[in-house]
Amino acid sequence: MGNPIQARSSSFHLLLFSIALASDPSCPLEKHQFPYLRDDQKTALLQSKQEFIRSDIILWEPETDYCLWEGVIWNVTTGYVIGLNLSSKLSKPIYDNSSLFGLNQLQLLNLAYNDFKFTPIPSGFDRLTYLTHLNLSNTCFSDQIPREFSNLTSLVSLDLSSDISCTPILDSVVELRRPKLESPNLQGLIQDLTSLIELYLDGVDLSSQGSDWSQVFPQALPNLRALSLSRCRLSGPVHCSLSQLVFLSQLRLDYNHLRIEAPKFLRKLQLSRCKINGSIPSSLANLTQLTDLNLSTNAFTGSIPLSLANLTQLSFLDLSFNSFTGSVPLFESISQLSRLEYLFLAANNFSGTVKLDMFGNLENLKILDLSNNQMSLEVGNSTSSALPNLKSCA
Ligand SMILES: *[C@@H]1O[C@H](CO)[C@@H](O)[C@H](O)[C@H]1NC(C)=O
Ligand SMILES: *[C@@H]1O[C@H](CO)[C@@H](O)[C@H](O)[C@H]1NC(C)=O
Ligand SMILES: *[C@@H]1O[C@H](CO)[C@@H](O)[C@H](O)[C@H]1NC(C)=O
Ligand SMILES: *[C@@H]1O[C@H](CO)[C@@H](O)[C@H](O)[C@H]1NC(C)=O
Ligand SMILES: *[C@@H]1O[C@H](CO)[C@@H](O)[C@H](O)[C@H]1NC(C)=O
Ligand SMILES: *[C@@H]1O[C@H](CO)[C@@H](O)[C@H](O)[C@H]1NC(C)=O
Ligand SMILES: *[C@@H]1O[C@H](CO)[C@@H](O)[C@H](O)[C@H]1NC(C)=O
Ligand SMILES: *[C@@H]1O[C@H](CO)[C@@H](O)[C@H](O)[C@H]1NC(C)=O
Ligand SMILES: *[C@@H]1O[C@H](CO)[C@@H](O)[C@H](O)[C@H]1NC(C)=O
Ligand SMILES: *[C@@H]1O[C@H](CO)[C@@H](O)[C@H](O)[C@H]1NC(C)=O
Ligand SMILES: *[C@@H]1O[C@H](CO)[C@@H](O)[C@H](O)[C@H]1NC(C)=O
């Protein structure tokens, strides 16, 4: 559904993008009122279609009303294409010489979920100097991320992440082709992208940055709100300089080799599969804004610290698959987290007999998983009133 829109401010772009693509397909304005979609833009779109777009699902035709062209947004004043959503719509990889790179007023470009079949990212993106949102997630590209990405200084949101389907943990062949930031390295890429508020690099090899990786963000990206770096081969500490990122509310670092130390303002912290050992550091209690904490599948030992009770906003807590020990009284801190909805403590070394009454303060609790411990569970007779929302208990 193509649809002309006119935006007032760049901060609304993402919102407008989704609204525009979801709204009435008919052109709301009389054709003669505006220069409409320029001919050179139509030509570039139709050429792109011929070059790499699946013609069975993208039905742009020269003779159909381009108001109905799906995934295209243009500026009604200038007639230039400013947004293109081609997520899952490509038939072939894009080459350096593609007509796409002629759409040089593009601000929003979504190419997510197209299979680049482990080829490198084509060059040409530096011609799109107005890009604010670039999404190449799950495109299975490989090799060095092009240097020219560091020229896209208007970027607000950059998504180069891939999930396990592109970089399976144990497949060494794929591992060799994994996308990476070596030259330029992480710092080289981001140092001029000072407008970024969202950065997703999951699956990109960032190991060349060394253990000072967490120090490069505060200086370059002061406005960052979301940072996602799972499976990036990071090592060393999560440096407390990250706490200078005062707007950061989401940090994802799972599947790395890290030590924990995180900024105070975080609301969501995912540090599972980070090979962290030792006991939970007392500094965790400083993260009083946390609503979601996932420390599963590490090598934590020791008991659950009493200071956990300070995380009063927690609604999601996953400590499963560690080697935590301790018996029933040690749940004292958890039982004070009255907002908890999901509590996963499975596959640890907790012992003793747990009575559900002990979780009596957790009236919002929906899921409780205590399985695979040295612990027995006594349901008792008071559960239904004490835990009114409990749906699942193991
Ligand atoms: C459309 O173009 C006009 C004129 O250049 C500009 O003022 C306006 O901000 C543009 N709108 C968008 C959504 O880019
Ligand atoms: C882009 O298209 C995909 C697939 O059609 C859709 O799931 C997604 O919501 C779209 N993105 C935006 C920002 O509209
Ligand atoms: C673009 O590059 C590809 C691969 O290098 C080539 O096959 C194709 O002919 C080129 N297209 C144009 C229009 O030059
Ligand atoms: C990128 O696009 C995919 C598919 O449309 C979507 O799931 C994902 O959330 C997008 N990333 C960002 C940062 O918006
Ligand atoms: C990209 O940035 C580099 C360094 O800032 C500069 O030398 C180069 O000319 C820029 N390239 C383009 C195409 O703007
Ligand atoms: C954690 O692991 C490192 C290296 O694997 C080791 O040197 C250190 O002693 C361990 N610490 C604890 C508390 O087990
Ligand atoms: C975190 O809490 C500890 C006490 O457990 C305190 O010594 C430390 O200064 C705090 N750190 C920050 C960054 O607030
Ligand atoms: C946790 O809260 C207790 C009081 O409830 C306070 O004495 C303690 O200093 C807090 N710990 C941290 C690390 O903030
Ligand atoms: C915690 O994170 C791990 C790894 O990303 C994930 O497998 C697990 O499902 C998460 N826990 C929950 C309860 O979602
Ligand atoms: C759990 O505790 C038992 C007995 O205290 C001990 O033998 C075992 O090694 C512990 N397992 C783990 C994974 O810590
Ligand atoms: C639970 O059952 C025990 C005896 O089996 C009884 O003494 C106790 O009052 C009951 N508690 C509630 C809340 O019904």
Write the layout of secondary structure elements.
Layout: H1 13-22, H2 39-52, E1 72-74, E2 81-85, E3 108-110, E4 133-135, E5 157-159, H3 172-177, H4 186-190, E6 198-200, H5 216-220, E7 226-228, E8 235-237, E9 250-252, E10 257-259, E11 268-270, E12 277-278, E13 292-294, E14 299-300, E15 316-318, E16 325-327, E17 342-344, E18 349-355, E19 367-369, E20 374-378, H6 383-386, E21 392-393
Parallel strand pairs: 2-3, 3-4, 4-5, 5-6, 6-7, 7-9, 8-10, 9-11, 11-13, 12-14, 13-15, 15-17, 16-18, 17-19, 18-20, 19-21
Antiparallel strand pairs: 1-2
This protein binds 2-acetamido-2-deoxy-beta-D-glucopyranose (11 copies).
Give a structural overview:
With 394 residues, the protein is an alpha/beta fold. It has a domain at 276-394: Ribonuclease Inhibitor (Leucine-rich repeat, LRR (right-handed beta-alpha superhelix), Alpha-Beta Horseshoe), CATH 3.80.10. Helices cover 11% and strands 17% of the residues. The chain has helices at 13-22, 39-52, 172-177, 186-190, 216-220, 383-386; strands at 72-74, 81-85, 108-110, 133-135, 157-159, 198-200, 226-228, 235-237, 250-252, 257-259, 268-270, 277-278, 292-294, 299-300, 316-318, 325-327, 342-344, 349-355, 367-369, 374-378, 392-393. The structure holds 2-acetamido-2-deoxy-beta-D-glucopyranose (11 copies). Residues 282, 285-286, 307, 310 line the site of one 2-acetamido-2-deoxy-beta-D-glucopyranose (NAG).
Which fold name corresponds to the CATH topology of the domain at 276-394? Leucine-rich repeat, LRR (right-handed beta-alpha superhelix)
Total of helices? 6
Summed over residues and divided by their number, the pLDDT gives a mean of 83
The CATH superfamily label of the domain at 276-394 reads Ribonuclease Inhibitor
Care to count the β-strands?
21
Q: Major sheet, described briefly?
A: 14 strands, mixed
Shape: elongated
Spans of 5+ residues with little confidence (pLDDT < 50)? 1-25
End-to-end distance, in Å?
Answer: 47 Å
Q: Which molecules are bound in this entry?
A: 2-acetamido-2-deoxy-beta-D-glucopyranose
List the secondary-structure elements in sequence, H or E. Answer: HHEEEEEHHEHEEEEEEEEEEEEEEHE
The CATH class label of the domain at 276-394 is Alpha Beta
Strand order of the largest sheet: 1-2-3-4-5-6-7-9-11-13-15-17-19-21
* Residue fraction in strands: 15-25%
Radius of gyration: 25 Å
User: What is the architecture of the domain at 276-394 at the second tier of CATH?
Assistant: Alpha-Beta Horseshoe
What percentage of residues falls in helices of 4 or more residues? 10-25%
